[in-house]
Amino acid sequence: MNRNVGSLELIKRINRQLVLDKIKEEQPISRARIARELSLSKTTVSAICDDLLDRRMIVDLGEKGPEKGSGRPSKMLGFNPRSACGVGIDLHTENAMAVVTDLNGEVLYRQEAPAVSLPDTIARLAMEVVQHSGMPVEDTIALGVSVPGTVTQEGVVIRANRMGWREFDLKGALTKQLPFSVTVNNEANCAALGERWRGTGGRSDNLYYIALDGGVGSAIISEGNLLYGAGCRAGEIGYLLGAGDVEAGRQNVLGQRGVLEQKIYALLHWEDKGPRQVMEDYVRGDEKARDAVTEFVNLLSLTVANLVSVLNPETVVIGGSIAQWMEPVLPAIRAIVSSMTPIGTQVVLGSLGPWAAAIGAVYGALSHTENENRK
Question: Structure pTM?
Answer without folding.
Answer: 0.91
